[in-house]
Design brief:
six-stranded mixed β-sheet
Length: 196
């Protein structure tokens, strides 16, 4: 399990052309599409969804992709029926579920959250404000803390900036639930999708 902490001041950046996005709220903040793939453990999924619903940033859509879960999810769907978009697929793995979610996003940004992870309440606000203030940045990541199983550990990724690809070949400290990326980058570059 991962608890996402705060946005790093020194986020990695790649410069690409800005897209045109019209989905903004009354405060002129862009829509963020949050993709949550899951397979079983509905109790954890509810915690993950609740951590999005409790964000200080309010312009988001939640896309839950059921990767062939064997659990009865009727209660979950009833509880959150007006709060998320639900997609079912046969079991193909979390990478496939994330890619399926990407096909349904409406937001300027895509944020990923695994069903066994939670965000702190200001995660989206801090990260989206940073990206909006630095329009040349097309993706960013945040720090995180592992928790549960009696082994809490804070993982500081603030030194991951600039061209980090070579460093990530042996070991990548950036966790999926920490990443926010502009949706046009994912839609235009299918090579950036998740392995299936």
């Amino acid at each position: 399990k991962i608890k996402v902490l705060k946005q790093s001041e020194n986020s990695p950046a790649v410069t690409l052309q800005n897209g045109d996005f019209s989905e903004k709220d009354e405060n002129n903040m862009p829509l963020v599409s949050v993709i949550i793939p899951f397979f079983n453990r509905i109790d954890w999924l509810e915690e993950a969804v609740d951590s999005v619903l409790n964000q200080s940033y309010s312009n988001y859509e939640i896309i839950v992709v059921n990767d062939g879960s064997t659990e009865n999810i009727d209660g979950f769907l009833q509880k959150y029926k007006n709060k998320l978009k639900y997609i079912y697929q046969r079991n193909k793995g979390s990478g496939s579920a994330r890619n399926n979610g990407i096909c349904h996003v409406k937001g300027k940004y895509v944020a990923f959250l695994d069903s066994d992870d939670i965000w702190l309440p200001n995660k989206l606000e801090v990260q989206i404000n940073y990206m909006e203030e630095n329009s040349d940045i097309v993706w960013s990541h945040s720090l995180y803390e592992t928790f549960g199983y009696g082994n809490n550990m804070r993982v500081d990724t603030s030194d991951y900036k600039g061209f980090i690809f070579p460093d990530c070949m042996s070991s990548c400290k950036i966790a999926t639930p920490c990443v926010v990326i502009r949706s046009d980058i994912l839609k235009q570059n299918t090579a950036l999708r998740f392995n299936e």
